[in-house]
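Problem statement: downstream parser choked on a complex file, so we are re-checking the raw output for the LBFN2T5F run. The parser issue turned out to be on our end (a line-ending mismatch), but while we're here, posting the original submission so the record is complete.
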Amino acid sequence: MNTHTFYKYQGAGNDFIIFDNRNGGFERNNVDLVRRLCDRRFGIGADGLMLLQNVDGYDFEMIYFNADGREGSMCGNGGRCIVAFAQDLGIVGAETDFLAADGVHHAKVHTMVGWISLKMGDVTAIERDGDAYILNTGSPHYVKQVVGLDAYPVVESGRDIRYNDTFRKEGVNVNFVEAEGNGYYVRTYERGVEDETLACGTGATAVALAMARLNGIEGFGETPIRVAGGKLTIRFNRTADRFTEVFLEGPAEFVFKGEITW
Ligand SMILES: N[C@@H](CCC[C@H](N)C(=O)O)C(=O)O
């Protein structure tokens, strides 16, 4: 048994356990351990867990696991939180380039407002499923417009879509969206958590791009998104079905640190 220091961060209520794994001590394939640490009753509790690791050519590497213990694809809010963690550790300054599951990301920290701007990958394909949209913003997303989102059965309907014949094997994150003011209100069922989370960064990004296509927005766009845990902003440049200069912006905050033994 050894004692390990962990850090807890949250971005718009999407919460993560982070370990500084620059010494390589955290066993990456231990699915049971990650699941136990993320468990809200038997562990620390979180939507996901991340390892900050050394990698050649970049400031650090982000390794992301969903709460079910499986290593995942890109997590947008996790990306913003691990940048805040890297700055708190003194590894990076106001800007950084780091490696994640979907490639390199550039991020800027706006310290005065506790706001982190994270550059996402380009998106070049958006598919349709009836009136819903399917796209990959680093993780796969399904975007469906609904009426009366506050009372909408997000977990039940999200689970039905995530486990239908099309998505059962690989899974999909399901975002329900309703127009609100000059932006959108979004609630997301996340694969790998298999529940609704308070925010999903790649999901908010997917919603902004899908709604830009629906509304025929070309060129630069800026979309405010309200989620249960706070506010996010997505900026992008659209040329036909190609989205470039996609930025996910929002808060990322240290919550607490502690020690755990296993
Ligand atoms: N919460 C994340 C998304 C995490 C990945 C997702 N659960 C998946 O497995 O696709 C975000 O902020 O993007």
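For whoever reads this later: The CA atoms of residues 7 and 257 lie 4 Å apart.
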